[in-house]
Design goal:
single chain, Creatine Amidinohydrolase, six-stranded mixed beta sheet, about 500 residues, alpha+beta, 2 domains, 15 helices, three-stranded antiparallel beta sheet
Amino acid sequence: MAPPPSSLSPPKIPMELHEINRAKLTKSLRDHLSLSSRPLKGFVFLQGGEEQTRYCTDHAELFRQESYFAYLFGVKEPDFYGAIDIETGESILFAPRLPEDYAVWLGEIKPLSFFKERYMVSMVFYTDESATVLHDRFQGSGKPLLFLLHGLNTDSNKFSKPADFEGIEKFKTDMSTLHPILTECRVIKSEMEVALIQFANDISSEAHVEVMRKTKVGTKEYQLESMFLHHTYMYGGCRHCSYTCICATGENSSVLHYGHAAAPNDRTLQDGDMALLDMGAEYHFYGSDITCSFPVNGKFTSDQGLVYNAVLGAHDAVISSMKPGVSWVDMHKLAEKIILESLKKGCLLVGEVDDMMVERLGAVFMPHGLGHFLGIDTHDPGGYLKGATRPSTSGLKALRTSRELQEGMVITVEPGCYFINALLIPAMESSSASKFFNCEEIGRFKGFGGVRIESDVLVTTDGCVNMTKVPRKTCEIEAVMAGGPWPLKKSSNYSENGGES
């Protein structure tokens, strides 16, 4: 009898998670104010996301809450505001006052008591009461102080939007204190946050395996995307994806952010292609980010195996080395070095690997950073603390963080090796780098594309835990694509080289 399509079901969402997040922020903010000899008075005040329509039409885009607001309040509806009283720790939600015809078109208009109970906050009022409520609750002289969210996201290079409302001129506002403190709160995950990220990983891992099994020559890249999205929604209740799916095959797998509107996962899979599938589901705001690379026809060629094992070696070495106190820059360099050593062993490169590292040759084959923080956003914030200097050398400047690892961080490990003409040709023509290339051997990889292997990893007290559960060894991939179970059973009829025994 065939196994069920999924062994998973969506877990209950604990709203206590957001109570913990609010308490964590309140403590951190109080500590900061105390050290600065500032009074422990005022309100954290955030504006939630607003519903958007498609350009000038009345087509409402599927709403997803603004991430900082989601972190603190867990509210899934648009047009809310939220406040935290720094002195008491009490939380306040402000809900939009909906028109009567909302009930006709969009369903029952919930009373304020519904949101108080659902989101486990101290009190709920309407948004048009914000100024009055906050003034009434302020125990002090002069204008009440609002700590507003405004700061730079070092991944997007965009600024968060500070709250704005009618009557804000009656308050004092602080635009600089909150953002770095709240961002740092998001860097270290609680047990409840980790559990949601783990479920997003579990259902996404299961979906990746399902796609791997159904991949065959002649299908379209978008069919692979569709299979993934169906599985995570059907069995995991994941209406949102963490990011636009990258379903790249053949030469497309060397396009790092393939899958965008101008390259919409629409190629037909060919015999001899490598597939690079970067897809992750989101559950209650918390995401996953997983990349699997494998041969479309289910069997690795020697060239495919060479590149794949180079990347897998880097992936495994980094995870084996991760623990609190380890520099992420050093982990990136470790991944580069292992990939370069493997390419030299495969005769694509010649010379001393240490000299290649000085020349920054690793960036030719892996131009992106090793990984990034993961949580409510795929590229979770906090990669660069205020005042931190981003590395400026080739390859390292693409790192999304240069921090030392800490217990409770969740970070992706995603080394890759790509054959990108825009990088390879200038390097092979460079007076300082050309000596490292075996041009004849590298010529075999024209049109190869690339390989990326990405797992989501939790840093623990003395090491780390890989939260992603997909086939990684070539023998595992070949066995699963040939119909074998996953996880592989010890009594499996598949030998270590992937063939039937």
